[in-house]
DNA sequence: TAGTGAACCTAA
DNA sequence: TCAGTTAGGTTCACTA
C-alpha cells in the first residue's frame, strides 16, 4: 500500500501547494521565516541526495502501520562487521554506568558490578561496552601490629558484621567483603614527613556495601586478638564510576580502544565485553581530542490542555511531538519530523506522521527514538516537563511499549524526584528520568547553571542569544488549533517544530556540547555529572588522580559547619566622577597562583611544628620538601590552558578552534574552583587553613600593591603626579596615575604591573588589564566606565559593575533609564543630557504616558532622579516621584516575562 | 524615624 | 544523600 504522498518539486512548488491548501485566517497569509528555513533544508537535501521520497515533506497517515523503516535516515549507518581476533574497536565514550549481575565466572552465586560504557565510533556506530572485573574498595589504616596473618580474620569478621548490619538481605548475599590487602599509603591530609603507613585496602562485592562497611569500622570494630578500634576510613565516599575512571585513567568523553583479541562481541551491533585491564584509554590530546559524530535529538511536545489550566498528564492528551536530529559538528538537522494526533497538512522540509490514537502516537515516537538511537537528547525543560509528562501519560494510556527509552534492553525509564540544595543554587526540586546510554542535555538546565538571565523562557532566551523568537501561538489556543482542521494543526506543528529546533540552535550557538565535553575531559568526570552534580566532584576527581600517583589517599570527613573565615579586601573607594584615565591592574588567577606560589595543599599543611607561616598563622612545608597536590593540579590546569591558548592562536579550522576555546575556558574555571573546594565547610574535604591562608595572602598582596604603586609613582620620583589607588577589590587596584591620556595610562600601567610583579613569588603575576576613561565610582562593587584595553583610541564598551543596569531585580525601565543616563554622562560627557533624559522618563511616568502595569518602581528610580536630575529638578522630581513609589507583585526570576522591550519615552 | 536583619543579587 | 567561597550594596518589613 502506498501510504506515502510526496509533494514533489522544488521549494517554490511545494510552498505554493502548501499555501493553496490553506483556508482563510489572518496568520496564514504567508509562510513564516521559520517555514522558509525548513524548506531550504529540503531543497539542499534534494540536490545533495537526489533520492526519492526521503528528504521530502511527506504526510504519512500512519494509523497502526508505524514502522521504524518509514524513513531510512532514522537508522544509524550499518555497522561493519567486527572480528575481535583481528580488529580493534575504537570509540568515544560519552556516558558510563554500572549494573549488577550474578553468575559471572568465579562469582556464580553473588552479584558483581559491571561497568557499562556507551559510545560512538568515528563512523557513527553506537557502542555498548561491558567492562568486567572491577570492584569497589576503600581504605582504613592497619592497626598497629597488624600483619598479613591477620588478613583472613579481619576479612571474616568484617564480612560477618556487615552481613549482620544489613536490615534486609533480599539478594541473599553471603559474601560482602571480597578481599582485604595490606598496602603502603599515606593520608593526603597534613604533612607528616612522607611517612607511608600500612593501610588495609578493603574490596567489597558491590558499591552499596561500602557505606555499611565504613560505618561498622568507624563505630568500633573488633576482630581476632586486636582491641576494639574506631577506624578512620579513606576514599569510602567515592562514586563507583569515578573510582573506576580514576583507576583506569578514563576521563569523561575520552576515546577508548579495545585491542584485538581482548574483547568479545556478545550481542548486537557493537555490544562488546572486555576486562577492565584490557582496554586502552587515550588521553584527550592531539587527534584524540576529536568528537565522534554524535546524534543529538531535540524534541518538544504539545498537550491539549483545558482553558486556563496547566496541562495535567492524567487528563490532557499529548497531541504532537516534534523531533529534530542533528549530527554533532554539522550545521543542520537531518531528521525533522512531527508526530501528530489527527491529520495535518504538509510542511515543506519536514515529515509528518499522523496518528488516530494517542497511545499509538506515543509508542511510535518511542520506537522512532530507539531507531534514531540518539546519544544526546535535548529540548527545553524536557527534564521537568516533557519526559515526566510523556511517561505519566504513557502510564495513563497503558502504553507499555513506550517507556523503554534507553539503550539497555528491558530497562524501563521511570520517574523519580530529586531534591538538591546548595548555597550557590538554592533549593531545587527536579525530576529525574533514567535513560541509560543517552545523555539528557536539557537546555534550560544548562542555561540555569551557566547564564544569569532576566528571563529563562525559551522565547526570551532565543531572543537573547539568537535574536529569534518562537512561532507566535498562544498557549490558550493550542486546544482550539488541535480541534480545528488539518490547517490549524499544521500551524501547531510548525510551532512545535520550532520549539524543537530552537534548543538545537542554542546548543550550537553556545557550543554547549563542545564546552561540556572539554570540561568532562579536563576534570575527568562523566558528561552527565556536569549537569546533575555540583562543583566539588570535579575537584575530587582531579585530586584522586593526582594523589594516586604518589600513593596518597583521601580521608572521609564528616560534614561539619563552623565559623566562616575572612575573605578578600575591598579597598574603600574614593567615590566620585573621574574625567581622567584610571588604570586597572589585576592579579591574574589570583587564588590559584597564591596556592602555587606558596605550595598550599592538604599534603603540605603542618598541623604542629614550624615552617612557612601564612598571614593567618597556618604552616605549610615548602615545595622543596614536598610539592602539594593542589599546586600540581593547578599547574597542570594553567599550563594546559596556556597550551590550549597557543594552539588556538595557530589553529585555523573553526571546529577545532571551538574545541580549544572550550578547553581553555574549562581549564580556567576548574583552576578557580579549587580554592572554593577547600573552603566548602560542608564538603568532601574542607581545609580552612588553606582557604583562609589564600585569602590572607590575597589581602596582604592587595595592600602591598597599593603601597608599591603609590610610593613609586610620585612627583618626587619624577612622575607627573602622585599616583592614587582610588579603589580595589580582591585582586585588582584602580589607579589614578595623574596622566591625561589613555595611552600614557596604558604605558605606565604596563610598567607598573611588571615592576610590582617582581615583588611576588612566581607564578603570581600582576597584569595591566584596562583603562577606564572616564570613570564613575559610585560605591564598593558599584561603578561604571568606558573600557579601553586593545586600543588607546577607541573604547570597547561601557563597563558597568553592580549597577542597576546589570541587576535582575530591577525592572527594565529602571535599567534602561540608568543605562541611558550613564551613556550621556560617560560617552557624551553631557550630565545635563542625563538630567534631561531622567526628567523626561520620570515625567512620562508621572503623566501615565508609560504603561506601568508591568513595572516595578523602586526607590532606585527616585534616587536616580535625585542623582542625575541636578539641583533644582532634584527636589521637585524627588518629591513628585516619592509618592509614586509602589510595588506590583514581583515575579521570581523563573518564568518571568518582562515585556520584551521597555516602553520608550513617548 | 532610625536601626536591624532578611532576602536578593552581584563582584571577585 | 547532596550542596564551591566571602564581601557588600540595596530594598523592605519590622521594631522600639
From TrEMBL:
Q: Which PROSITE patterns match?
A: DNA_POLYMERASE_B (PS00116)
All copies of the DNA-directed DNA polymerase family B multifunctional domain together span: 525-882
Entry EC no(s): 2.7.7.7
Q: What Gene Ontology terms for biological process does this UniProt record contain?
A: base-excision repair, gap-filling; DNA replication proofreading; nucleotide-excision repair, DNA gap filling
Please give the SUPFAM superfamilies that the UniProt record associates with this protein.
DNA/RNA polymerases, Ribonuclease H-like
Report the GO molecular function annotations: 3'-5'-DNA exonuclease activity; DNA binding; DNA-directed DNA polymerase activity; metal ion binding; nucleotide binding
- What GO cellular component term, any one, is given? delta DNA polymerase complex
Q: Where is the DNA-directed DNA polymerase family B exonuclease domain?
A: 232-461
The DNA polymerase zeta catalytic subunit N-terminal domain covers which part of the protein?
Answer: 108-132
DNA polymerase delta/zeta catalytic subunit N-terminal domain spans which residues? 133-210
User: Keyword annotations for this protein?
Assistant: DNA excision, DNA replication, DNA-binding, DNA-directed DNA polymerase, Exonuclease, Hydrolase, Metal-binding, Nuclease, Nucleotidyltransferase, Nucleus, Transferase
Show the catalytic activity: DNA(n) + a 2'-deoxyribonucleoside 5'-triphosphate = DNA(n+1) + diphosphate
- Residue ranges of the region described as Disordered: 1-34
Pfam annotation, one family: POL3_N
Family according to the record? Belongs to the DNA polymerase type-B family.
- For this entry, the protein name equals DNA polymerase
Q: What organism, scientifically named, is this protein from?
A: Cyclopterus lumpus (Lumpsucker)
User: What gene does the UniProt entry assign to this protein?
Assistant: pold1
Amino acid at each position: 500500500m502506498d501510504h506515502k504522498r510526496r509533494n514533489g518539486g522544488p521549494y517554490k512548488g511545494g510552498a505554493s501547494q502548501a499555501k493553496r491548501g490553506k483556508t482563510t485566517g489572518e496568520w496564514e497569509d504567508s509562510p513564516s521565516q521559520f517555514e522558509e528555513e525548513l524548506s531550504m533544508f529540503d531543497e539542499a537535501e534534494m540536490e545533495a541526495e537526489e533520492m526519492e521520497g526521503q528528504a521530502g515533506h511527506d504526510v504519512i497517515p500512519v494509523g497502526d502501520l508505524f514502522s521504524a523503516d518509514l524513513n531510512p535516515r532514522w537508522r544509524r549507518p550499518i555497522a561493519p562487521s567486527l572480528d575481535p581476533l583481528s580488529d580493534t574497536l575504537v570509540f568515544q565514550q560519552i556516558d558510563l554506568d554500572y549494573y549488577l549481575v550474578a553468575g559471572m565466572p568465579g562469582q556464580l552465586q553473588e552479584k558483581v558490578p559491571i561497568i557499562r560504557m556507551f559510545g560512538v565510533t568515528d563512523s557513527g556506530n553506537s557502542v555498548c561496552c561491558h567492562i568486567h572485573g572491577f570492584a569497589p574498595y576503600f581504605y582504613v589504616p592497619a592497626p598497629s601490629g597488624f600483619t598479613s596473618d591477620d588478613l583472613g580474620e579481619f576479612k571474616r569478621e568484617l564480612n560477618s558484621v556487615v552481613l549482620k548490619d544489613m536490615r534486609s538481605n533480599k539478594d541473599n548475599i553471603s559474601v560482602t567483603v571480597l578481599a582485604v590487602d595490606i598496602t603502603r599509603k599515606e593520608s593526603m591530609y597534613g604533612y607528616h614527613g612522607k611517612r607511608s603507613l600500612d593501610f588495609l585496602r578493603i574490596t567489597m562485592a558491590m558499591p552499596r556495601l561500602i557505606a555499611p562497611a565504613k560505618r561498622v569500622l568507624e563505630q568500633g570494630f573488633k576482630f581476632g586478638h586486636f582491641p576494639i578500634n574506631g577506624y578512620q576510613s579513606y576514599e569510602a565516599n567515592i562514586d563507583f564510576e569515578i573510582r573506576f575512571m580514576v583507576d583506569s585513567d578514563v576521563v569523561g568523553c575520552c576515546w577508548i580502544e579495545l585491542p584485538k583479541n581482548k574483547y568479545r562481541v556478545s550481542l548486537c551491533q557493537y555490544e562488546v565485553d572486555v576486562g577492565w585491564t584490557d582496554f586502552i584509554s587515550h588521553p584527550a590530546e592531539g587527534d584524540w581530542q576529536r568528537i565522534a559524530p554524535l546524534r543529538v535529538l531535540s524534541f518538544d511536545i504539545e498537550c491539549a490542555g483545558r482553558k486556563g489550566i496547566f496541562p495535567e498528564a492524567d487528563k490532557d492528551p499529548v497531541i504532537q511531538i516534534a523531533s529534530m536530529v542533528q549530527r554533532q559538528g554539522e550545521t543542520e538537522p537531518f531528521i525533522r519530523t512531527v508526530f501528530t494526533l489527527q491529520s495535518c497538512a504538509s510542511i515543506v522540509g519536514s515529515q509528518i506522521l499522523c496518528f488516530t490514537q494517542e497511545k499509538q502516537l506515543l509508542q511510535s515516537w518511542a520506537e522512532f527514538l530507539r531507531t534514531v538511537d540518539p546519544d544526546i537528547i535535548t529540548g527545553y525543560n524536557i527534564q521537568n516537563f516533557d519526559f515526566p509528562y510523556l511517561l505519566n501519560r504513557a502510564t495513563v494510556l497503558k502504553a507499555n511499549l513506550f517507556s523503554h527509552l534507553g539503550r539497555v534492553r528491558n530497562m524501563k525509564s521511570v520517574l523519580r524526584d530529586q531534591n538538591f540544595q546548595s548555597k550557590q543554587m538554592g533549593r531545587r526540586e527536579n525530576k529525574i528520568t533514567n535513560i541509560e546510554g543517552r545523555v539528557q542535555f536539557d537546555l534550560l538546565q544548562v542555561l540555569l547553571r551557566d547564564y544569569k538571565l532576566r528571563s529563562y523562557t525559551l522565547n526570551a532566551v532565543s531572543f537573547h542569544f539568537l535574536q529569534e523568537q518562537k512561532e507566535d501561538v498562544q498557549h490558550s489556543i493550542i486546544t482550539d488549533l488541535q480541534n480545528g482542521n488539518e490547517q490549524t494543526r499544521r500551524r501547531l506543528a510548525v510551532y512545535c517544530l520550532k520549539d524543537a529546533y530552537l534548543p538545537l540552535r542554542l546548543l550550537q550557538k553556545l557550543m554547549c556540547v563542545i564546552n561540556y565535553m572539554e570540561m568532562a575531559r579536563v576534570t575527568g568526570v562523566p558528561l552527565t555529572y556536569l549537569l546533575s552534580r555540583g562543583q566539588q566532584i570535579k575537584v575530587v576527581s582531579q585530586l584522586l588522580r593526582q594523589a594516586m600517583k604518589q600513593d596518597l589517599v583521601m580521608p572521609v570527613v564528616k560534614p561539619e559547619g563552623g565559623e566562616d573565615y575572612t575573605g578578600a579586601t575591598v579597598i574603600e573607594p574614593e567615590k566620585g566622577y573621574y574625567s581622567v584615565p584610571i588604570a586597572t591592574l589585576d592579579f591574574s588567577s589570583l587564588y590559584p597562583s597564591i596556592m602555587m606560589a606558596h605550595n598550599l595543599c592538604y599534603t603540605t599543611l603542618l598541623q604542629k611544628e614550624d615552617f612557612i607561616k601564612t598571614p593567618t598563622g597556618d604552616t605549610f612545608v615548602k615545595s622543596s620538601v614536598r610539592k602539594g597536590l593542589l599546586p600540581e593540579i593547578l599547574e597542570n590546569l594553567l599550563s594546559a590552558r596556556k597550551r590550549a591558548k597557543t594552539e588556538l592562536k595557530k589553529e585555523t579550522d573553526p571546529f577545532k578552534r571551538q574545541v580549544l576555546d572550550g578547553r581553555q575556558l574549562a581549564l580556567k574555571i576548574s583552576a578557580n574552583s579549587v580554592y572554593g573546594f577547600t573552603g566548602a565547610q560542608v564538603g568532601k574535604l574542607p581545609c580552612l587553613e588553606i582557604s583562609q591562608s589564600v585569602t590572607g595572602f590575597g589581602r596582604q598582596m592587595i595592600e602591598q600593591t597599593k603601597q608599591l604603586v603609590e610610593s613609586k609613582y610620585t612627583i618626587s620620583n619624577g612622575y607627573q603626579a602622585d599616583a592614587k589607588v582610588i579603589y580595589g577589590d580582591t585582586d585588582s587596584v584602580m589607579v589614578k596615575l595623574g596622566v591625561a591620556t589613555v595611552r600614557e595610562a596604558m604605558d605606565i600601567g604596563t610598567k607598573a604591573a611588571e615592576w610590582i610583579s617582581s615583588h611576588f613569588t612566581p607564578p603570581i603575576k600582576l597584569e595591566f588589564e584596562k583603562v577606564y576613561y572616564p570613570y564613575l565610582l559610585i560605591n564598593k562593587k558599584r561603578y561604571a566606565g568606558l573600557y579601553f584595553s586593545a586600543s588607546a583610541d577607541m573604547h570597547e564598551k561601557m563597563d558597568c559593575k553592580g549597577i542597576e543596569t546589570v541587576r535582575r531585580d530591577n525592572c527594565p525601565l529602571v535599567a534602561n533609564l540608568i543605562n541611558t543616563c550613564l551613556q550621556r554622562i560617560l560617552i557624551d560627557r553631557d550630565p545635563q543630557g542625563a538630567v534631561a533624559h531622567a526628567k523626561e522618563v520620570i515625567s512620562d511616568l508621572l503623566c501615565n504616558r508609560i504603561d506601568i502595569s508591568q513595572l516595578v518602581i523602586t526607590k532606585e528610580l527616585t534616587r536616580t532622579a535625585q542623582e542625575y536630575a541636578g539641583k533644582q529638578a532634584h527636589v521637585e522630581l524627588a518629591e513628585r516621584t516619592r509618592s509614586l513609589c509602589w510595588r506590583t507583585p514581583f515575579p521570581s526570576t523563573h518564568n518571568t516575562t518582562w515585556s520584551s522591550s521597555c516602553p520608550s519615552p513617548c
